[in-house]
Write a structure and sequence with these properties.
Strand order of the largest sheet: 6-5-4-3-7
GO molecular function, one term: DNA binding
Structural class: alpha+beta
Helix content: 25-40%
Order of helices and strands: HHHEEHHHHEEEEE
Organism: Cellulomonas humilata
InterPro entries: CBASS_pafABC_assoc_protein (IPR051534), HTH_11 (IPR013196), WH-like_DNA-bd_sf (IPR036388), WH_DNA-bd_sf (IPR036390), WYL_dom (IPR026881)
Protein name: DNA-binding transcriptional regulator YafY
Pfam families: HTH_11, WYL
Strand content: 15-25%
Number of helices: 7
Oligomer: single chain
Number of strands: 7
Protein backbone atom coordinates (compact mmCIF):
# COMPACT_ATOMS: atom_id res chain seq x y z
CA UNK A 1 0.00 0.00 0.00
CA UNK A 2 1.46 3.38 -0.98
CA UNK A 3 1.57 6.23 1.55
CA UNK A 4 -1.35 8.18 0.07
CA UNK A 5 -3.63 5.13 0.25
CA UNK A 6 -2.36 4.37 3.75
CA UNK A 7 -3.11 7.89 4.99
CA UNK A 8 -6.66 7.64 3.67
CA UNK A 9 -7.09 4.16 5.16
CA UNK A 10 -5.66 5.38 8.48
CA UNK A 11 -8.16 8.24 8.61
CA UNK A 12 -11.00 5.84 7.81
CA UNK A 13 -9.85 3.40 10.50
CA UNK A 14 -9.80 6.20 13.08
CA UNK A 15 -13.31 7.20 11.98
CA UNK A 16 -14.47 3.59 12.24
CA UNK A 17 -13.22 2.97 15.79
CA UNK A 18 -14.88 6.19 16.95
CA UNK A 19 -14.40 7.77 20.38
CA UNK A 20 -12.77 4.60 21.74
CA UNK A 21 -9.68 5.38 19.70
CA UNK A 22 -6.90 2.96 18.85
CA UNK A 23 -3.19 2.58 19.58
CA UNK A 24 -0.20 3.08 17.34
CA UNK A 25 0.79 -0.54 17.98
CA UNK A 26 -2.53 -1.84 16.64
CA UNK A 27 -2.40 0.50 13.64
CA UNK A 28 1.16 -0.57 12.88
CA UNK A 29 0.09 -4.21 12.91
CA UNK A 30 -2.97 -3.47 10.76
CA UNK A 31 -1.04 -1.61 8.05
CA UNK A 32 2.16 -3.68 8.37
CA UNK A 33 4.40 -0.71 9.19
CA UNK A 34 6.35 0.37 12.26
CA UNK A 35 4.81 2.38 15.13
CA UNK A 36 7.23 5.17 14.19
CA UNK A 37 5.71 5.26 10.69
CA UNK A 38 2.22 5.42 12.20
CA UNK A 39 3.25 8.41 14.31
CA UNK A 40 4.63 10.17 11.22
CA UNK A 41 1.43 9.43 9.30
CA UNK A 42 -0.76 10.74 12.13
CA UNK A 43 1.37 13.89 12.23
CA UNK A 44 0.84 14.32 8.47
CA UNK A 45 -2.93 13.98 8.94
CA UNK A 46 -2.86 16.56 11.71
CA UNK A 47 -0.85 18.98 9.58
CA UNK A 48 -3.43 18.48 6.81
CA UNK A 49 -6.12 19.71 9.21
CA UNK A 50 -7.61 16.43 10.41
CA UNK A 51 -8.49 16.77 14.13
CA UNK A 52 -6.68 13.70 15.49
CA UNK A 53 -5.85 13.82 19.20
CA UNK A 54 -3.81 11.51 21.42
CA UNK A 55 -5.27 10.14 24.64
CA UNK A 56 -2.76 9.81 27.46
CA UNK A 57 -2.52 7.00 29.99
CA UNK A 58 -2.97 3.24 29.98
CA UNK A 59 -4.94 2.09 26.97
CA UNK A 60 -4.68 5.51 25.37
CA UNK A 61 -4.35 6.04 21.66
CA UNK A 62 -5.36 8.18 18.72
CA UNK A 63 -8.89 9.54 18.42
CA UNK A 64 -10.51 11.31 15.47
CA UNK A 65 -13.09 13.99 16.23
CA UNK A 66 -16.52 12.35 15.93
CA UNK A 67 -17.78 15.10 13.62
CA UNK A 68 -15.29 14.08 10.93
CA UNK A 69 -16.01 11.38 8.42
CA UNK A 70 -17.76 10.45 5.24
CA UNK A 71 -21.49 10.98 4.77
CA UNK A 72 -23.56 8.08 6.12
CA UNK A 73 -23.88 5.07 3.84
CA UNK A 74 -27.54 4.17 3.42
CA UNK A 75 -27.49 0.48 2.57
CA UNK A 76 -30.46 -1.75 3.27
CA UNK A 77 -29.86 -5.18 4.87
CA UNK A 78 -30.67 -6.81 1.51
CA UNK A 79 -28.16 -4.60 -0.31
CA UNK A 80 -25.48 -5.43 2.25
CA UNK A 81 -26.16 -9.15 1.77
CA UNK A 82 -26.05 -8.72 -2.02
CA UNK A 83 -22.63 -7.07 -1.74
CA UNK A 84 -21.38 -9.81 0.62
CA UNK A 85 -22.61 -12.47 -1.81
CA UNK A 86 -20.83 -10.79 -4.73
CA UNK A 87 -17.59 -10.57 -2.74
CA UNK A 88 -17.78 -14.20 -1.64
CA UNK A 89 -18.47 -15.25 -5.24
CA UNK A 90 -15.08 -13.93 -6.34
CA UNK A 91 -12.79 -16.85 -7.19
CA UNK A 92 -9.70 -17.17 -4.99
CA UNK A 93 -6.84 -15.09 -6.34
CA UNK A 94 -9.06 -12.45 -7.96
CA UNK A 95 -7.56 -8.96 -8.38
CA UNK A 96 -8.81 -6.53 -5.73
CA UNK A 97 -10.21 -9.46 -3.73
CA UNK A 98 -8.63 -8.19 -0.49
CA UNK A 99 -10.06 -4.71 -1.07
CA UNK A 100 -13.47 -6.21 -1.84
CA UNK A 101 -13.49 -8.06 1.48
CA UNK A 102 -12.48 -4.86 3.30
CA UNK A 103 -15.31 -2.97 1.55
CA UNK A 104 -17.79 -5.66 2.59
CA UNK A 105 -16.74 -5.18 6.22
CA UNK A 106 -17.10 -1.39 5.96
CA UNK A 107 -20.64 -1.69 4.61
CA UNK A 108 -21.66 -4.00 7.46
CA UNK A 109 -20.01 -1.69 10.00
CA UNK A 110 -21.99 1.27 8.61
CA UNK A 111 -25.38 -0.39 9.16
CA UNK A 112 -27.43 0.62 12.21
CA UNK A 113 -27.50 -2.15 14.86
CA UNK A 114 -31.01 -3.35 13.96
CA UNK A 115 -30.19 -3.49 10.23
CA UNK A 116 -26.91 -5.27 10.99
CA UNK A 117 -28.83 -7.97 12.87
CA UNK A 118 -31.23 -8.38 9.96
CA UNK A 119 -28.37 -8.54 7.49
CA UNK A 120 -26.60 -11.18 9.59
CA UNK A 121 -29.80 -13.25 9.83
CA UNK A 122 -30.49 -12.96 6.10
CA UNK A 123 -26.92 -13.76 5.07
CA UNK A 124 -27.06 -16.91 7.19
CA UNK A 125 -29.84 -18.13 4.91
CA UNK A 126 -27.88 -17.62 1.69
CA UNK A 127 -25.39 -20.36 0.88
CA UNK A 128 -22.82 -20.24 -1.91
CA UNK A 129 -20.27 -22.80 -3.02
CA UNK A 130 -16.92 -21.16 -3.89
CA UNK A 131 -15.76 -21.68 -7.44
CA UNK A 132 -13.15 -24.39 -7.80
CA UNK A 133 -9.94 -23.01 -9.29
CA UNK A 134 -6.47 -24.30 -10.04
CA UNK A 135 -3.36 -22.20 -9.67
CA UNK A 136 -3.79 -18.64 -8.41
CA UNK A 137 -1.48 -15.66 -8.28
CA UNK A 138 0.31 -14.87 -5.03
CA UNK A 139 -0.85 -11.89 -2.95
CA UNK A 140 2.42 -10.08 -3.76
CA UNK A 141 1.82 -10.44 -7.50
CA UNK A 142 -1.81 -9.39 -7.23
CA UNK A 143 -0.99 -6.26 -5.24
CA UNK A 144 1.82 -5.27 -7.62
CA UNK A 145 -0.42 -5.71 -10.69
CA UNK A 146 -3.23 -3.74 -9.02
CA UNK A 147 -0.90 -0.85 -8.14
CA UNK A 148 0.72 -0.87 -11.58
CA UNK A 149 -2.67 -0.61 -13.27
CA UNK A 150 -3.93 2.05 -10.87
CA UNK A 151 -0.81 4.20 -10.72
CA UNK A 152 0.46 3.72 -14.30
CA UNK A 153 3.84 2.36 -13.21
CA UNK A 154 5.80 -0.12 -15.32
CA UNK A 155 5.86 -3.62 -13.87
CA UNK A 156 8.94 -5.87 -13.89
CA UNK A 157 7.85 -9.52 -13.92
CA UNK A 158 9.27 -13.02 -13.97
CA UNK A 159 6.97 -15.15 -16.11
CA UNK A 160 6.63 -18.87 -16.74
CA UNK A 161 4.99 -19.64 -20.08
CA UNK A 162 2.78 -22.65 -20.76
CA UNK A 163 5.75 -24.74 -21.90
CA UNK A 164 7.72 -23.88 -18.76
CA UNK A 165 10.02 -21.26 -20.31
CA UNK A 166 11.06 -18.54 -17.85
CA UNK A 167 11.48 -14.95 -18.96
CA UNK A 168 11.82 -11.49 -17.45
CA UNK A 169 9.67 -8.73 -18.87
CA UNK A 170 8.81 -5.09 -18.29
CA UNK A 171 5.15 -4.58 -19.01
CA UNK A 172 2.60 -1.74 -19.09
CA UNK A 173 -0.78 -3.16 -17.95
CA UNK A 174 -3.80 -2.15 -20.04
CA UNK A 175 -6.58 -4.22 -18.46
CA UNK A 176 -7.38 -7.22 -16.29
CA UNK A 177 -9.69 -9.89 -17.68
CA UNK A 178 -11.10 -13.22 -16.57
CA UNK A 179 -11.75 -15.75 -19.31
CA UNK A 180 -11.58 -19.53 -19.55
CA UNK A 181 -11.49 -19.80 -15.77
CA UNK A 182 -8.26 -17.78 -15.42
CA UNK A 183 -7.31 -14.16 -14.67
CA UNK A 184 -5.03 -12.41 -17.16
CA UNK A 185 -3.35 -9.03 -17.41
CA UNK A 186 -3.27 -7.70 -20.97
CA UNK A 187 -0.23 -5.46 -21.21
CA UNK A 188 2.19 -3.78 -23.57
CA UNK A 189 5.36 -5.85 -23.39
CA UNK A 190 8.39 -3.60 -23.81
CA UNK A 191 10.50 -6.59 -24.88
CA UNK A 192 8.10 -7.77 -27.61
CA UNK A 193 6.92 -4.23 -28.44
CA UNK A 194 3.37 -5.53 -28.64
CA UNK A 195 0.36 -6.30 -26.47
CA UNK A 196 0.59 -9.68 -24.77
CA UNK A 197 -1.70 -11.56 -22.38
CA UNK A 198 -0.09 -12.87 -19.19
CA UNK A 199 -1.88 -15.37 -16.96
CA UNK A 200 -1.61 -14.02 -13.42
CA UNK A 201 -0.98 -17.46 -11.92
CA UNK A 202 2.12 -17.81 -14.13
CA UNK A 203 3.71 -14.57 -12.93
CA UNK A 204 6.28 -15.78 -10.40
CA UNK A 205 7.31 -12.32 -9.25
CA UNK A 206 6.14 -8.76 -9.93
CA UNK A 207 7.86 -5.55 -8.85
CA UNK A 208 6.64 -1.99 -9.30
CA UNK A 209 9.27 0.20 -10.95
CA UNK A 210 9.66 4.02 -10.72
CA UNK A 211 9.05 4.28 -14.48
CA UNK A 212 5.64 5.71 -15.40
CA UNK A 213 3.74 4.95 -18.59
CA UNK A 214 0.86 6.49 -20.51
CA UNK A 215 -2.08 4.05 -20.49
CA UNK A 216 -2.80 2.65 -23.93
CA UNK A 217 -6.32 2.65 -25.41
CA UNK A 218 -8.41 -0.40 -24.60
CA UNK A 219 -8.83 -0.90 -28.34
CA UNK A 220 -5.14 -1.86 -28.53
CA UNK A 221 -6.04 -5.11 -26.75
CA UNK A 222 -8.50 -6.06 -29.49
CA UNK A 223 -12.24 -6.54 -29.78
CA UNK A 224 -13.83 -7.90 -26.58
CA UNK A 225 -16.33 -10.79 -26.76
CA UNK A 226 -19.89 -9.57 -27.45
CA UNK A 227 -21.04 -10.47 -23.92
CA UNK A 228 -18.08 -8.77 -22.19
CA UNK A 229 -18.36 -5.41 -20.43
CA UNK A 230 -16.39 -3.39 -17.85
CA UNK A 231 -17.19 -4.12 -14.19
CA UNK A 232 -18.14 -0.44 -13.83
CA UNK A 233 -21.14 -0.99 -16.11
CA UNK A 234 -24.27 -3.11 -16.29
CA UNK A 235 -24.55 -5.59 -19.20
CA UNK A 236 -27.25 -3.37 -20.73
CA UNK A 237 -25.16 -0.18 -20.62
Amino acid sequence: MNRTDRLYALAEELRRVGHAGTTSTRLARLFEVSPRTVKRDVSALQQAGLPVTAQAGLGGGYVLDASVGLPPVNFTPAQAVALALAVRALPPGSPFGTDAEAARGKVLDALPPADRLRADELSGRVWSRPEQVGEVATPQVLRAVEESLGRHRVLAIEYRSGDGTLSRRRIEPVLLARTGGHWYVAAWCQWREAVRWFRLARILRADLTPERYEPRPLADVGEPPPDAYPVSSRPSD
